[in-house]
């Protein structure tokens, strides 16, 4: 392939920007929903194959999550609304079950079940977490829609570790009075 045949970054970004402004629910972060689903499935397989894939796939998830947050156009929102919006945007409402197990000023613990149904195959116990892409997706999205740039997400339980669910610890640097009885705690 010659250099002339390779599209410029500016052209790709311009095309993706026009696509991501589309209100069609079949697009997520400028990516076709079917491609997003395939990427999510592939990310789990790759991380299950070799943990060296975890960091780059987490970063990809973070970027895509931030792009989806921009599409949502609702800022800032509380954690519960944000998570519901992401699940709805990804077309997973009624397919996966998510719930916040607990929250305090330092963060929250999110539990997700039904992942194997989404992927279409059972995730084997590979003795490590395999949802790094999703952790990055949650992090990028939550940072964008909550306006909390110091927020981070870590997967602490996973089907890849033999659990029946995945859990993500959401770490944050709270402003006084937030999340625990503060303005962002009530939706």
Automatic annotation (TrEMBL):
It comes from the Bacteria. This is 4-vinyl reductase 4VR domain-containing protein. InterPro entries: NO_sig/Golgi_transp_ligand-bd (IPR024096), V4R (IPR004096). Residues 109-172 form the 4-vinyl reductase 4VR domain.
């Amino acid at each position: 392939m010659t250099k002339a045949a390779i599209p410029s970054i500016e052209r790709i970004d311009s095309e993706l920007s026009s696509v991501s402004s589309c209100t069609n629910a079949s697009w997520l972060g400028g990516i076709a929903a079917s491609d997003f689903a395939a990427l999510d499935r592939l990310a789990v397989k790759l991380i299950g194959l070799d943990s060296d894939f975890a960091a780059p796939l987490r970063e990809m998830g973070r970027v895509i999550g931030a792009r989806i947050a921009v599409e949502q156009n609702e800022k800032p929102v509380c954690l519960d609304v944000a998570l519901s919006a992401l699940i709805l945007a990804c077309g997973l409402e009624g397919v996966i079950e998510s719930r916040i197990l607990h929250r305090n000023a330092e963060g929250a613990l999110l539990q997700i079940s039904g992942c194997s149904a989404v992927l279409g195959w059972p995730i084997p116990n590979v003795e490590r977490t395999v949802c790094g892409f999703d952790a990055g997706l949650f992090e990028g999205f939550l940072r964008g829609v909550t306006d909390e740039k110091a927020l981070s997400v870590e997967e602490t339980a996973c089907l890849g570790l033999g659990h029946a669910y995945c859990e993500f610890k959401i770490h944050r640097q709270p402003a006084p009075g937030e999340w625990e009885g503060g303005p962002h705690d009530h939706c």
